[in-house]
Specification:
Elements lengths: L1 H12 L8 H39 L5 H29 L7 H41 L5 H48 L1
């Protein structure tokens, strides 16, 4: 009997696992998703504006070198593909309400997380490489009559800007989004575990 009493006291002394409030978790999930979708939305708006500008340059400016047209076309196609990926990710997050079926929503979030990991990985570097190639081809003709110093300045600033976006800004943005997403997924999984 002493062993049983000791076992009961140890069991009762265990810290109780916090029960998550369903309403609170769903409110936090909606807030986190709203933040991510807002970022994606403004990314889509900015990308559409740049696509329209690039399209206008391609079809309403006359260039003498075919390399300029190739460069602009490379940039246009690359931005179009990136826009399609962003819109797809936006639709994944926006297509379902988290309060209707949280377990299905959790699966959608995991799918989004995998897609976003692809974008953060190889596709982003391919995107930067193709945009850089397109800009280089475009600048050949545009900067042809410029001084050497001006060309070096433009190419140098472009390289610095691309390096900044690739190695600093990308990591910061994707890491911030990944942390938010991991927190949301963790909360939904804990909530799901409470009901199983």
């Amino acid at each position: 009997m002493k062993d049983f009493d000791h076992l009961m006291s140890v069991w009762q002394g265990q810290p109780k696992q916090d029960q998550l409030s369903v309403d609170e978790v769903l409110r936090q999930v909606k807030k986190g998703i709203r933040s991510i979708t807002s970022q994606l939305y403004w990314g889509i708006v900015a990308m559409c504006a740049v696509l329209v500008l690039t399209f206008l340059i391609l079809f309403f400016f006359v260039f003498q070198s075919w390399l300029t047209y190739v460069g602009i076309t490379i940039m246009l196609v690359t931005m179009l593909l990136y826009s399609i990926m962003i819109i797809r990710n936006y639709r994944i997050l926006n297509k379902r309400d988290s309060t209707i079926n949280p377990s299905d929503y959790l699966q959608d979030l995991k799918e989004y997380q995998k897609n976003r990991a692809k974008v953060a990985g190889w596709f982003y570097y391919l995107y930067v490489l193709l945009i850089s190639l397109g800009l280089s081809l475009y600048f050949i003709e545009v900067l042809r009559n410029s001084t050497i110093l001006y060309r070096i300045l433009v190419y140098g600033l472009t390289v610095v800007w691309i390096m900044f976006l690739t190695f600093y800004y990308k990591k910061r943005i994707f890491k911030n989004e990944e942390e938010k997403l991991n927190l949301i997924i963790e909360k939904l999984e804990r909530l799901k575990g409470q009901f199983e």
